[in-house]
């Protein structure tokens, strides 16, 4: 994975909560939980699930989720 954002934190997904259109993905990074609000489509496209390793990618006030291909 290559990305321009400097603030990427590797952790483990502990929970994925799907809403009507937006999901909340909770990632444990060294004992701290970071929550990202992303679309349900993004969750499906990335195949996100609890127990999977992922990155919390922080840019300004937003948190995105990234995975290794």
Short description:
This is Transporter. The protein is mostly beta strands and 69 residues long.
Instruction: Give Rg in angstroms.
Output: 11 Å
Helix content: 10-25%
CATH topology: OB fold (Dihydrolipoamide Acetyltransferase, E2P)
Helices and strands: which structural class?
Answer: mainly beta
Number of separate strands = 5
Report the top-level CATH class. Mainly Beta
Q: What's the main sheet like?
A: 5 strands, antiparallel
Proportion of residues in β-strands: over 45%
Number of domains: 1
**What is the straight-line distance between the termini?**
7 Å
Describe this structure in words.
- The protein is globular and about 30 Å long.
- By secondary structure, it is mainly β.
- It has one domain: RNA polymerase II/Efflux pump adaptor protein, barrel-sandwich hybrid domain (OB fold (Dihydrolipoamide Acetyltransferase, E2P)), CATH 2.40.50.100.
- The protein is 10% helix and 58% strand.
- β1 and β2 form a beta hairpin.
- The protein has one helix and five strands, in the order βββαββ.
- A five-stranded antiparallel β-sheet has the order 3-2-1-4-5.
Q: Which tags fit this structure?
A:
mainly beta; OB fold (Dihydrolipoamide Acetyltransferase, E2P); five-stranded antiparallel beta sheet; 1 helix
